[in-house]
Amino acid sequence: MKENSILIDNLKINYKIAGEGPAILILHGWGGSSDSWRKVLKILAKEKYKIIVPDLPGFGKSITPPIAWDVKAYSNFVFELTEKLGISQFLLLGHSFGGRIAIKFAKDYPEKIKKLILCDSAGIKQKWGLKEKIIFQLSKLGNAIFTPSPLTRLKDKSRNLFYIFLRNKDYFKADGTMKETVKKVLSEDLLPELSDIKTETLLIWGQKDKMVPLKYAYIFKENVPNSKLEILPKIGHSPHLEKPEKLSKIILNFLKE
Fold first, then answer.
1. Residues 199 and 158 in one domain
2. What's the domain count of the chain?
3. SS3 (DSSP) at 206
4. 87 and 155 assigned to the same domain
5. 8, 34, 106, 193: which has the fewest C-beta neighbours closer than 10 Å?
6. Structure letter (DSSP) for residue 97
7. Does residue 238 share a domain with residue 175?
8. What's the domain range around 137?
9. Alpha-carbon span 56 to 51, nearest angstrom
């Protein structure tokens, strides 16, 4: 396994690469990096595949963009990366936030993808229940209260608490530009775009996923035309960390079909 860097849109991008053969591009989740896919990368590389796992801009060792990006910007980044690496076609795997990017990429550049894997993918805007609606109204009230200049510095703290209550710790952990990126990414609902995915697609979902619950897997299955669903019993949001061998086996079986 090698670790290299490449310049994309004036951003120094770090990526890991291993193996020789048909290419598999893996897009990690929010807060993750190529490091979290080391085990899967090594297993797949031994099976005569070329595995590429970039640190997405703003994560790992890659540089953060100077302005907030939306999902489209990340999709364009993936296109530029594959062009520079000389990868004309590949299997694309997106996990969680990486799944959002993979959905957008599959719609924008279908000719580039041989097969698509969405693993515990984000992308469908979750509906708020009564609790979340109450918290949102309270946050609006808090926003009005904290607007006067002496209290302005408390405004960001109240916003952070709102996102924590919504189980969105990504916003709380993000800094600077990436905070705005979180907001842009979460505001986009990719559900209407799922029907535009024409590539053969495998949906892999942890039965115990609390970040993106299993019910969303069935929505994906219903809306992605040429798709099938593989549910992993007793596994949560990160199969690549919890059961890398099992996940790798499922990926390899899908490739060989």
1. no
2. 2
3. strand
4. no
5. 193
6. H
7. no
8. 130-182
9. 15
- 169's tokens: 């710790």
- Is there a single domain that holds both residue 160 and residue 146? yes
Q: Answer yes or no: do 26 and 112 share one domain.
A: yes
- Both 135 and 229 in a single domain? no
One pLDDT digit (tens) per residue for the chain, 257 residues: 999 999 999 999 999 999 999 999 999 999 999 999 999 999 999 999 999 999 999 999 999 999 999 999 999 999 999 999 999 999 999 999 999 999 999 999 999 999 999 999 999 987 655 544 454 455 455 555 545 555 555 445 444 444 444 444 554 456 689 989 998 999 999 999 999 999 999 999 999 999 999 999 999 999 999 999 999 999 999 999 999 999 999 999 999 98
> Which helix (H) or strand (E) segment is 173 a member of?
helix 169-173
Do 241 and 170 sit in the same domain of this protein? no
My answer on whether 75 and 135 are in the same domain is no
Instruction: Give, to the nearest 10 degrees, the angle between helix 244-256 and helix 38-45.
Output: 40
Token readout for 207 is 């039965």
Q: Name residue, tokens 């189980």.
A: 167
Residue with tokens 């894997």: 117
pTM confidence score: 0.85
